[in-house]
User: Which sequence fits this backbone?
């Protein structure tokens, strides 16, 4: 479903933790928050609800 947005994925801080934001034309459409343990990703939380996305504290890291 989200494969078409892959080219717009950028590393980001999502509420202060590592993640990925997908934002075509600068407008976030999905966010993945990553949880790490023992140097591995142990949990991935994906959010695509526009109302909840608007409330997140996002900081895109590349640039």
Assistant:
């Amino acid at each position: 479903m989200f494969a078409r947005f892959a080219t717009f994925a950028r590393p980001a801080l999502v509420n202060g933790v590592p993640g990925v934001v997908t934002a075509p034309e600068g407008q976030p459409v999905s966010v993945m928050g990553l949880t790490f343990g023992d140097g591995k990703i142990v949990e991935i939380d994906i959010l695509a609800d526009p109302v909840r996305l608007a409330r997140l504290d996002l900081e895109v890291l590349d640039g």
